[in-house]
Amino acid sequence: xxxxxxxxxxxxxxxxxxxxxxxxxxxxxxxxxxxxxxxxxxxxxxxxxxxxxxxxxxxxxxxxxxxxxxxxxxxxxxxxxxxxxxxxxxxxxxxxxxxxxxxxxxxxxxxxxxxxxxxxxxxxxxxxxxxxxxxxxxxxxxxxxxxxxxxxxxxxxxxxxxxxxxxxxxxxxxxxxxxxxxxxxxxxxxxxxxxxxxxxxxxxx
Length: 205
Prior knowledge:
By secondary structure, this protein is of the alpha/beta class. Helices cover 40% and strands 17% of the residues. Helix 1 crosses helix 2 and helix 5 (109-119) runs parallel beside helix 6 (135-144).
């Protein structure tokens, strides 16, 4: 069973952000003023930085993510599993809920695009061959949106040909699994991508 992380704060002050990142307070303020780091003001005029915005900033500028920020907000990992095969969706739901994850399901890329804003997943597990908007199109959609651009996306596919593997690598998926895969490896990869536990490998055959 996966060990769920403790509950993390959802918002940070500019001082807390500077401490976490190891930079000066004026540096954080300047990032905010330059619209590089997203922040909002409280009714009292104090700046607050959402944890997800801080992580997105670090990923965008390829900066290391402090261990204090590793892991999803709250006590449960949220996973959006997208597959047009009902049996595969139910398999993923059973597997991931058995690990203590919170799971949302979508049957195609269009549905995933609609659901992602509601489910707010920490990770997306995405089939590649689906009717309508396939996995590659769904990834492109997620990467084009500010609120989903940095969510780790794992490709799962039954296609094992070199052309597909090259296309997956070029598209920029965070991990790639070829069906049938070891379920434990998928769980380990999810945890690894979130910085919760070292996964055994990110690509499985």
